[in-house]
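Sample A.
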Amino acid sequence: MDNQTANSIVGFMMVPLGLLGLLLAARAVDVEIEIFGYGLVIFAFLFGFSTIKRVYDYRDAARAIAHKEAGHG
């Protein structure tokens, strides 16, 4: 399994975690669980964007290496 596939799998696993956080925050009867739920949502959101960033960084690095090997840099 390559790095991009692993990043995608882990990224998609964050979706249920974010939804669980929304459910916890919506159904919370005390402030602590509500804060924890919102924390899960924020974590899943930021983790998703960092996964997307990692995929594009990997692609850009591969493109730069190919460009350098072709003698253009």
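Sample B.
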Amino acid sequence: MVSFGDANCDSVLNNFDINAFVAAALDAEEEEAPHDYCVAAGLSESGSPSPCQACWDARETWGDPQRRRRVQQFRS
């Protein structure tokens, strides 16, 4: 299960989520997973849906717990 802050969807909240979270914050409005996010998260872009797209689609869970339609850096 993906939790808040787990931006690479590996079920572990650690330093490997930082680059993916930053990449997501820069392109949060995109429907398709941005290439920079996939690279930062270390996720494959192949398959249907790709692991990268599946994690990107879950960004409301790991990056937007208040459902404000944006990836946010702080809980409030």
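B remarks: The chain has a mean pLDDT of 87. The chain has four helices and no strands.
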